[in-house]
Amino acid sequence: xxxxxxxxxxxxxxxxxxxxxxxxxxxxxxxxxxxxxxxxxxxxxxxxxxxxxxxxxxxxxxxxxxxxxxxxxxxxxxxxxxxxxxxxxxxxxxxxxxxxxxxxxxxxxxxxxxxxxxxxxxxxxxxxxxxxxxxxxxxxxxxxxx
Length: 146
Description:
mainly alpha; two-stranded antiparallel sheet; Bact_Kbp; LysM_dom_sf; LysM domain-containing protein; LysM; coiled coil
């Protein structure tokens, strides 16, 4: 494989790009006639052996398999998380409904308490009136029968 060097290229950069390992630039010296591998110039051609490129493809394929396995694992985790979220949302909805029912019951109890208080006040007033009437009757009775 021939790569034409352009302005700004370095062996380090080209090895990273084509071989996925910048440290392999020294190996390329075996296949190229650089007088100084630290000085490469635009227009020069860099030879990259097919065997080295195939190694990169093999490594990339292995990484792809690993990434696909990780992706599948993440998909399973996502599905589990979504199921948990749906379950929690249903529980929250049920709790909200229970809370609304409890609030309605509380309001009914408060209303009942208010009416019982009114009834107790009426009974108290009535008993006060009866007691007052009895007291008056006793005093009249005393006055009539000394």
